[in-house]
Amino acid sequence: MLYLARKAVLPVSEKSSPRRGQTLQFNVAQLLKQPAEAARHFTFEDAIVPHLEQELTLRAPLHGHINLVKTGADVLVTGTLSTELELPCTRCLTPVRVPVTVDIEETFSPTHDVTSGARLTLAADADPATLIDEHHILNLAEVVRQDLLLSQPSHVLCRPQCAGLCPQCGHNLNEGPCACQPDEVDARWAGLLALKEELEAEKSSN
Predict the structure, then answer these.
(1) Is the Cα torsion angle 105, 111, 117, 120 positive or negative in sign?
(2) What are the residue boundaries of the structural domains of the chain, listed by start?
(3) What is the reported pLDDT for 165?
(4) 22 alpha carbon, distance to own chain's centre
(5) To the nearest whole percent, how much of the chain has pLDDT over 90?
(6) Which residues, including other chains, have CB under 8 Å from residue 64's CB and lie 6 or more apart?
(7) What is the Cα–Cα distance from 4 to 6, expressed in whole angstroms?
(8) How far apart are the C-alpha atoms of 134 and 113, rounded to whole Å?
């Protein structure tokens, strides 16, 4: 009797060509059928996140790389995406282009068995944003949207020494002085005002 040695099944790692103008959705049906540690690698040059423009103004393509790795019954998603956001200067409200980068690390769980199609039991606290749907589509858009919203810096300056707006007429003092007379500062508040200006100067230099 002839016996044939079985070859070891090795994890599959595949890399796709760069994606342009595509959404962050991935059909992971075949990946879910692979052994643990099987991987897919994707590069994006202009990723699309639906409705993101209603919350943020992007001034550069959303680009980077995404890795999908089979981990048991789940899929681990890691990667980095970068873009530029347009945000108002904290002092004068002038639009400023701010580069941002988000690092992604999320575990996505299937809602249906990839072979039988049967619905799977999910944890009570399962996050809808990290679930793979009944068509085995992993949609990363909501995770990226949340990460981009959280990546916005709280203090943005158009320049380190931004003069801000006149508190009386709203004129942009970076464009020159206005005709308003400066308010007299109550001597009791002078020390606090000096401290405020000192803290703002330190924040601008960092």
Answers:
(1) positive
(2) 13-150, 159-206
(3) 94
(4) 16
(5) 63
(6) 43, 44, 47, 79, 80, 81, 82, 101
(7) 6
(8) 8
Handedness of CA 29, 31, 34, 36 (dihedral sign): negative
Q: What are 16-51's pLDDT values in tens digits? A: 556 667 889 999 999 999 999 999 999 999 999 988
- Name the β-bridge partners of 63: 82
d(CA 82, CA 84): 7
- Smallest CA-to-CA distance from 144 within 35, 42, 15 is with 42
Of 149, 159, 150, the C-alpha closest to 94 is 159
Helices (H) and strands (E) in the chain, counts: 3, 9
pLDDT in tens, 52-68: 888 999 999 999 999 99
pLDDT score at 3:
37
Structure tokens at 61: 């393509």
End-to-end CA distance of the chain: 76
Count other C-beta atoms under 10 Å from residue 195's C-beta.
10
Residues 6+ apart with CB under 8 A from 164: 91, 92, 173, 174
**Residues 120, 142: contact at Cβ < 8 Å?**
no
Answer whether 172's CB lies under 8 Å from 159's CB: no
The amino acid occupying position 101 is: T
